[in-house]
Amino acid sequence: MANAIRFYEIGGPEVLKYEQTEVGEPGPGQARVRHTFVAVNFIDIYFRTGRYPLALPNGLGSDAVGVVEAVGAGVTDIKPGDRVGYLLGPQGSYSDVRVMPAEVLIPIPEGVSDSTASTLMMKGMTAQYLFRQVYPLKGGETILYHAAAGGVGLIACQWAKALGVRMIGTVSTDAKAEVAKANGCAEVIVTSREDIAKRVRELTDGKGVPVVYDSVGKDTLMASLDSLQPRGHLVSNGTSSGPVVIDTTLLAVKGSIWVTRPAMIHYATPRPHMLGMARELFDLVAAGKIKSEPSRTYPLRDAAEAHRALESRQTTGATVLVP
């Protein structure tokens, strides 16, 4: 038996139920993983509230780290005792043990703790594909990044600095501004008292930026468009404030803007590519250029409280559950 969070209807955090479930032996191509840390991501809220539909009842959560307990037939590159993490596969990481497709498991190298790895699976790999694939940064650019004090944001601050990129980050409070600066964000805009686009123009001598990474969505759409150079790129990588709806005519008016809505699955597969992404990320950790630990931890049974904190914008950095 395993302890797990499941939900039977969409709604608020109260729909999350802590209960016992059956966990069998891994079949061909599978591995059973006992979790040490489970990451909480904003996408989990999208599933819980029905923004991203799931067949119910279902588990929740997309990434975790732990130790392999057993493997099924045909699994050759993962063995019992290996420390692994994952960010792809079926929902259900909010559990203490589960069976997973072995092809999505990422070996965690020596020198990287489970607690650090728990903040890097989805969040670190998201920073990788945003900065190295969706709009590849070469160094020397000035960029705008929304939610710079969030779980992905703090890694992005450090990654931008390592690349020699000048990152302008947005945050909601002065306290979060200090956190973003401490992690390498070059310039910080406090949205509760500053006009984003106006401040970006001031910081770029009126030119604007070539790319905006926007995980906020509806509330920041116009500010993002108004911050871009002609033929700039809007990377819409989240909608925490609500869905983005764009009149394509507006894109022409704002400077022939390019817009993309990337999804991890299209950037982290096939497996050899995913492992290459992870190597680049872990190499930066080993070099001391990215440092990351959970900012908040909750017992697995208190997943609803973790969701409430995340939705209320109380958190900075990564939030994790401990089985």
UniProtKB/TrEMBL annotation:
GO cellular component, one term: cytosol
Signal sequence annotation: none
Gene3D superfamilies found in the cross-reference section: Medium-chain alcohol dehydrogenases, catalytic domain, NAD(P)-binding Rossmann-like Domain
UniProt cross-references to InterPro entries, sorted A to Z: ADH-like_C, ADH-like_N, ER, GroES-like_sf, NAD(P)-bd_dom_sf, QOR-like, Quin_OxRdtase/zeta-crystal_CS
Record has Lyase as a keyword: no
Domain (Enoyl reductase (ER)): residue spans on this chain: 11-321
Keywords associated with the record: NADP, Oxidoreductase
Zinc keyword on record: no
Domain of life: Bacteria
GO terms of molecular function: mRNA 3'-UTR AU-rich region binding; NADPH binding; quinone reductase (NADPH) activity; zinc ion binding
Pfam families to which the protein is assigned, alphabetical: ADH_N, ADH_zinc_N
PANTHER family: QUINONE OXIDOREDUCTASE PIG3-RELATED (PTHR48106), QUINONE OXIDOREDUCTASE-RELATED (PTHR48106:SF13)
Protein name: Alcohol dehydrogenase
Lineage: Bacteria, Pseudomonadati, Pseudomonadota, Betaproteobacteria, Burkholderiales
